[in-house]
């Protein structure tokens, strides 16, 4: 895949994936097109050599893999991991708020959201809705309003003179978005709005909305930014960019070696769920693929945990260690933390550096300042659960956990090229 094609495909992937459920649906469509077969965890499996398969759990996590043409116990598995979720505002179960003719909805903060940028944005709404349809069947439906339907207006500076120097945000009272104006006699429910949207979008008659998992998102699509188009700005770059890189690498490799991509939900809230990285999803799949030889397979395998890194901010350069401030468009970032917030060790980092050197591609290293706390990824969780050698790496970005983030146009493609070479490598260790 060429550089321009890669980046245009990335923008399309970001725009079609406003929620983890939509991201998995987008990944599934790409895998189906490439000839991968879907497996159901409830069924018996009969895996064939040289074939591609995928498994979806909860609609928001997916594992896709190629079995390889040889014996998996002899070659190990080249694994890549990322996550499908991003910090956002999710709609509460009983959300209706009517104030002075405004119809608003209550929201819950999901993950470590940078809240200030959510104000004064055109917001849309998407997610999964569980309904009882006209046939009396309980089913899940994906919903995406796909246009601006809400707005969180800031309080004018005339009414808050300290807004620029001393403003705090109350997540309960300051964040409910405005969706429309209604008369005092209005009895509209949020569920009824969903029923109409489902009828319009999916053509399904709904007897009752039984539940939903919906989040607001920036209605503006992903775009190139900069006088030379050297940046990409979008919502959910953390971490759909890594999902896209891993998917593209998997699709563009041969079927010779065993390869695997796992995209987990719930990383932003700790990964403790049935489909999260701290849950049994990946381990259970490997049990069924590798059987009693699983421990031998793991000993020959390696995981690349891909999650975006903190690029150095030109206005806040003192927030980085002076020797470990990654620059945008200067290469992917190997993330190191000896307290195991990242799973990188000298061996896994060495493999990545060696492949990059062979390809003549750049890389950087990030270590958090010694007087600051360090974030984490699915890397240590996956390494701890499986016992697999793991590398934590990511594309440098700015505005992490904001409603709109920024990366460079070079780094994602560089990581894709190294990842593709990693997946096709006849021997890892």
From TrEMBL:
Residues forming coiled coils: none
InterPro entries membership: Peptidase_M18, Peptidase_M18_dom2
Top-level class of the enzyme under EC nomenclature: hydrolase
TM annotation in the entry: none
Cofactor: Zn(2+)
GO-annotated cellular components: cytoplasm
Family named by the database record: Belongs to the peptidase M18 family.
PANTHER family: ASPARTYL AMINOPEPTIDASE (PTHR28570:SF3)
Protein name stated in the entry: M18 family aminopeptidase
Protein's organism: Marinobacter lipolyticus SM19
């Amino acid at each position: 895949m060429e550089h321009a094609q890669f980046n245009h495909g990335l923008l399309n992937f970001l725009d079609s994936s406003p929620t983890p459920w939509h991201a998995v649906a987008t990944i599934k469509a790409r895998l189906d097109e490439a000839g991968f077969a879907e497996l159901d965890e409830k069924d018996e499996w009969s895996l064939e050599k040289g074939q591609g398969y995928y498994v979806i759990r909860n609609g928001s996590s997916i594992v896709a893999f190629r079995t390889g043409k040889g014996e998996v116990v002899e070659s190990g598995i080249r694994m890549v991991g990322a996550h499908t979720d991003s910090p956002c505002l999710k709609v509460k179960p009983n959300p209706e708020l009517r104030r002075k003719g405004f119809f608003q909805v209550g929201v819950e903060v999901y993950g470590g959201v940078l809240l200030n940028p959510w104000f004064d944005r055109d917001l849309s709404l998407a997610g999964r809705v569980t309904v009882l349809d006209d046939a009396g069947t309980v089913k899940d439906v994906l919903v995406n309003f796909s246009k601006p339907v809400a707005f969180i207006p800031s309080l004018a500076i005339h009414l808050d003179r300290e807004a620029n120097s001393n403003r705090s945000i109350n997540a309960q009272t300051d964040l409910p978005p405005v969706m429309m104006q209604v008369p005092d006699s209005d009895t509209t429910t949020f569920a009824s709005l969903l029923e109409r949207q489902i009828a319009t979008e999916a053509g399904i008659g709904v007897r009752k909305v039984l539940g939903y998992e919906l989040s607001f998102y920036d209605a503006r699509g992903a775009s190139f930014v900069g006088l030379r188009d050297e940046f990409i700005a979008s919502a959910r770059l953390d971490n759909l960019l890594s999902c896209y890189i891993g998917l593209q690498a998997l699709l563009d490799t041969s079927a010779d070696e065993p390869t695997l991509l796992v995209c987990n939900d719930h990383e932003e809230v700790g990964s403790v769920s049935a489909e999260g990285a701290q849950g049994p999803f990946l381990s259970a799949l490997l049990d069924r693929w590798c059987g009693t030889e699983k421990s031998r397979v793991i000993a020959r395998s390696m995981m690349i945990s891909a999650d975006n890194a903190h690029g150095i901010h030109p206005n806040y350069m003192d927030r980085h260690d002076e020797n470990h401030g990654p620059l945008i468009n200067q290469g992917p970032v190997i993330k190191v933390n000896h307290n195991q917030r990242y799973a990188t060790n000298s061996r896994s980092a060495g493999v990545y550096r060696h492949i990059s050197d062979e390809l003549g591609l750049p890389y950087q290293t990030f270590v958090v300042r010694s007087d600051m706390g360090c974030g984490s990824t699915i890397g240590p969780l996956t390494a701890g659960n499986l016992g697999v050698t793991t590398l934590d790496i990511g594309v440098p970005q700015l505005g992490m956990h904001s409603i709109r983030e920024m990366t460079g146009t070079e780094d994602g493609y560089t990581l894709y090229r190294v990842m593709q070479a990693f997946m096709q490598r006849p021997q890892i260790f």
